[in-house]
Each structure stands twice: as C-alpha cells, then as structure tokens.
UniProtKB/TrEMBL annotation:
Gene3D superfamilies: 1.20.1280.120, Catalase core domain. SUPFAM superfamilies: Heme-dependent catalase-like. This is Catalase-related peroxidase. It comes from the Bacteria. Residues 1-303 form the Catalase core domain. Has an organic peroxide-dependent peroxidase activity. CDD domains: srpA_like (cd08153). Its EC number is 1.11.1.-.
C-alpha cells in the first residue's frame, strides 16, 4: 500500500494471473495484424481529427484474450472479454490509439473498485471458504455479473463486436463538442455455445485469423454512440440507452497478419489516452488510470 493506484492495479493483476516475464499484466495472449482505416463523411462533421479526414490511415492492431495468463486456451470462459487495440498512424507521423473489448459495459465504475475486484479475486483461491471474497464482491456489485453476462466466445476475432466503454469527447471544426462511446462491429457476430468453445483447440483464435486473412481482408465498422445531455460520461459501468444515435465513423480493413507477432507485440504499447486534436478525454478518470497502469505493465515487460 502507499503505492499509486496504477501500481496497485498491476500488482493485483500479477497476483491473480501470476508474473510472466515479457508479457502484459492483462490481455497477455494476442496477435498483431495490419490494415487501414477510411473515415465516412459523417465522421468529419463530428470531429476535426486528422483520423477522420477521409484519407486512408494505416493501422497496427492487436487482438487479445483477457487475463495475464499467456497460455490460456482461447475458448476458456476466462478469455472473455476478448480485446482489440488499434493504433492509427496519422499523416503527421503521430499515432492515436483506441483500446476496447467485447464487454458492453465495465463490471465496476472506477479504478478503485477495479482494484477491490482484483484483490477479492486474489484472495479467493480454489480452496477458499465459501462464500469467497470474490463471491461476496459479486453479490454486492450487481454490475459485475451483468457485465460478464454480455460476453461470449466468438468463433473468430473477426466475428466479434468490441465496445469502447469509456466515453471520449469529439470536437469538430466549429468547436462543437459531443461525448461518444466507440463501437467496432464486424460484418457478422458469431458466438459459440460454452460447451463448443471449451472443446476448441487451445490457440484456435490466434491461428484462425492469419488463415482467414490468406483468403482476403476482414472488415469492421467503426461507430460512435452519441451521448444525450443526461447520459453519464464518467461511469463506464452504465451503458447509455440503446436508442441513442449511432453514427458510422468509417471502415477498418485488416489485410495482413504480422509474421513475427510474438516479437512485435512486446514493443507495442497501446494507450487509451493517446489522443489527437479533435478527440479529447471526457470527465471519466478511468482513462488516465488505465494509461498509468498500461505504462507500468509496459515498463515491467520491457525491463
Ligand atoms: C481501471 C481499469 C483498467 C485497468 C487497470 C486495465 C489494465 C490493463 C493493463 C495493465 C493492460 C496491459 C497493458 C500493457 O502491458 O500494454 C491492459 C491491456 C488491455 N486492456 Fe485494460 N485495463 C482497464 C480497463 C480496460 C477497459 C475499460 C478496456 C476496454 C474498453 C480494456 C481493454 C484492454 C485491452 C484490449 C488490452 C490489451 C492492449 C494491447 O493489446 O496491448 N481495459 N489493461
């Protein structure tokens, strides 16, 4: 204790998932791919970001399984939510990142609560007396089972939908501001039954994507859900009503698996707070806490 929250979060993850040198404290198992993003005309009306100019923007992306366990079977329930991190390489040489996962909303509202959740997990080994610390945490935080109820194992990283969860603020050329949450939607969602997922080969998701890309590119639709004035932008555990307008921001085309993905992923750092003019943080403090924790994890995996 007495350490910054960001350090405590990574320490708790290390306790729950074990310490695996060179690997991420969370989303340890992943695969790196490349492609490009092309914005829709509507996007430029919402944000003046260079990302939305309509020019083709090269991207590096990493799909991942949850947890800090690098050899977790992809079909394990614990591998949910699956994640995707996208680094957009802008014309001026800078990058902006979007780091999202398949939960429709976060299990808890704040970084402090997430630390409590991880601590409860660390204190609930298989032989712990019932109800375990984690069971107690879950029964006092109904958003935990609700959030995990929104995920299932996909048959492919390409057939999953990913959600931004934390809100950001778009600023357009006129200076108008709009709070948004990202969505990255596939052409079709395919989820497996739990019993089917458990039977899949341990690396079926990591192996499937490069195979699929040999047949042709995979596309996703980047969208923004627009907040209404009364929607909270600082509680990632509260989804906004489904009736809110959703605007297509553009199409992400993934066309290439990176051959030496295990090497490349080590030096990649995706930061949810790495933004560019026209995209700003909202009042959600979780994005800064995430940024700090990702940096701690990065420095430990690249000592
Ligand atoms: C306080 C809340 C959170 C904490 C403390 C946290 C912590 C972490 C850490 C330490 C890593 C490893 C980073 C690295 O070594 O590069 C990570 C990765 C990741 N997190 Fe989070 N996270 C949080 C919330 C979220 C949320 C809300 C999302 C989705 C919207 C998310 C999605 C991801 C993804 C996709 C990765 C993998 C990034 C990559 O491929 O490099 N996390 N997280």
């Amino acid at each position: 204790q007495g350490q910054p929250l960001e350090e405590q979060l990574v320490n708790s993850m290390n306790k729950v998932f074990g310490v695996h040198p060179g690997m991420r404290a969370n989303h340890a198992k992943g695969i790196v791919v490349e492609g490009s993003f092309k914005a829709s005309p509507e996007a430029a009306g919402l944000s003046r970001a260079a990302l939305f100019s309509g020019a083709a923007i090269p991207v590096t992306a990493r799909f991942s399984d949850s947890t800090g366990v690098p050899n977790l079977p992809d079909g394990s329930d614990d591998a949910n939510p699956h994640g995707v991190a996208v680094k957009f390489h802008l014309p001026d040489g800078s990058d902006t990142d979007i780091v999202i996962n398949s939960l429709k909303f976060f299990p808890v509202s704040t970084g402090e609560e997430f630390r409590e959740l991880l601590t409860a997990l660390a204190e609930s080994p298989a032989n712990a007396a019932k109800p375990t610390k984690f069971e107690q945490f879950v029964s006092s935080h109904p958003s935990v089972p609700a959030a995990f109820g929104t995920v299932a194992t996909p048959d492919s990283f390409a057939d999953e939908e990913y959600y931004g969860i934390n809100a950001f603020t778009f600023v357009n050329k006129a200076g108008e501001r709009q709070a948004v949450r990202y969505q990255m939607l596939p052409e079709k969602v395919v989820h497996l039954e739990k019993s089917d997922a458990a039977k899949r080969a341990p690396d079926f998701l990591m192996n499937e994507l490069p195979e699929r890309l040999k047949q042709g590119p995979v596309t996703f639709h980047f969208k923004a859900q627009l907040a209404a004035a009364e929607d909270s932008t600082k509680d990632p555990a509260k989804p906004w009503p489904e009736s809110r307008k959703v605007v297509e921001l553009g199409v992400l085309t993934i066309d290439k698996a990176v051959p030496n993905s295990d090497e490349v992923q080590k030096s990649l750092l995706f930061l949810p707070g790495q933004l560019t003019d026209g995209i700003e943080q909202s009042d959600d403090p979780m994005v800064d806490i995430r940024g700090g924790a990702y940096a701690v994890s990065f420095s430990r995996r690249n000592p």
